[in-house]
Amino acid sequence: MPSSRPRRSVLYVPGANPRALEKALGLGADAVILDLEDAVAPTEKAAARERIAALLAVPRRPDAPEVVVRLNPLAGGLGIADLAVILPAQPDGLLLPKIATAADIGAFRRAAAETAPGVTVPIWAMIETARAVADPLSIALATDGDYPLTALVLGLNDLAAETGARQVRGRAPMLPWMMGVLAAGRAGGLDVIDGVFNDLSDVAAFEAECLQALDCGFDGKSLIHPRQIEAANRAFMPNEAALAEARRIAGLFDEPRHVGLGVLAVEGRIVERLHAEAAKRLIARFEVIASRGG
Ligand SMILES: CC(C)(COP(=O)(O)OP(=O)(O)OC[C@H]1O[C@@H](n2cnc3c(N)ncnc32)[C@H](O)[C@@H]1OP(=O)(O)O)[C@@H](O)C(=O)NCCC(=O)NCCSC(=O)C[C@H](O)C(=O)O
Ligand SMILES: [Mg+2]
């Protein structure tokens, strides 16, 4: 089941940038990804790890964004070194880069269990390799075991680099992969977050891409700069009409007269239990956003 936590705006924050880390939790993003991978040079990895662990050690307010740490790949040893420092600090999630197959998730789970026995943290998987978009379902269904898989995050920069597909406005070359990942994520009961938009100067195109992601069914958009947060939050914010509709149908099947029914007609339209569950999630997400003053 997709999460009831809002993930409209998911901001990458380089672990090598102390100023960005200092600001990260107060910028209004629903979630932040404190990055140890692509945004951190090899010589900065160790310092970035310690900096992120120190930030995680500070108790967070109840209305703080979700704090996820992107690790380095296990191959090569950096990912193991990351795990040893980050896992005991218990972030809200760990984002695994360059996941190619379900076996990579299994390898991560084994490494995590050896590195910090007894500490369980939800995992998010980056879908950014040709192998992964060719078979996203096998990854999305790798939900069993400790370290529950809860979200997929598209990495379209890496995917473009590996496949040669160009990142053009409207994303026509990427759309079949994007929708395949979306469907796979939903089949696994996962949240799915769209990739980043690289051009900070083109605000209109960024907003259009947020709306496209919403239309496609994504739960939110990953971001590279604080100035993208507000537009993403706005685009993925449940609107008044959707909320009013959700409030109308969320509790319908809990009413004694409807117990045992699987489908109802409301104002001439069919409502099934799955609609009521989706309505409850929408309301729960909205309530978290409202509690943050959003
Ligand atoms: C793109 C940037 C390098 C720009 O940085 P900068 O020149 O410092 O921008 P500004 O001067 O406009 O910054 C204004 C203030 O905002 C803070 N800031 C900037 N970016 C962030 C951020 N991401 N999180 C938090 N705070 C941020 C600055 O510190 C300034 O603060 P102040 O001094 O108080 O004014 C920079 O934005 C950046 O590094 N962005 C993240 C890039 C990144 O993480 N890339 C890797 C992830 S994307 C990816 O890999 C996706 C996937 O894997 C794929 O394959 O597609
Ligand atoms: Mg990437």
List the helices and strands and how they pair.
Layout: E1 9-14, H1 18-24, E2 31-35, H2 45-57, E3 66-70, H3 78-86, E4 93-96, H4 102-115, E5 123-127, H5 130-134, H6 136-140, E6 149-154, H7 156-163, H8 175-187, E7 191-194, H9 203-216, E8 220-223, H10 229-236, H11 240-249, E9 263-266, E10 269-272, H12 273-291
Bound molecules: ligand LIB3CWND and magnesium ion (MG).
Ligand LIB3CWND binds next to strand 1, helix 1 and helix 7.
Question: Could you explain how this protein is built, in words?
Answer:
Keywords: Lyase, Magnesium, Metal-binding. This is Citrate lyase subunit beta / citryl-CoA lyase. With 294 residues, this protein is an alpha/beta fold. The protein has two domains: 9-236, TIM Barrel, CATH 3.20.20.60; 240-291, no CATH class. The chain is built from twelve helices and ten strands. Strand 7, helix 9 and strand 8 (220-223) form a beta-alpha-beta unit. It binds ligand LIB3CWND and magnesium ion. Magnesium ion binds at residues 38, 128, 155, 157-158.
The proportion of strand residues reads: 15-25%
Rg on CA atoms, Å: 19 Å
In CATH, the homologous superfamily of the largest domain goes by the name Phosphoenolpyruvate-binding domains
What's the architecture of the largest domain in CATH terms?
Answer: Alpha-Beta Barrel
Task: Give helix % range.
Answer: 40-55%
Distance between the termini: 24 Å
Q: Supply the helix-strand structural class.
A: alpha/beta
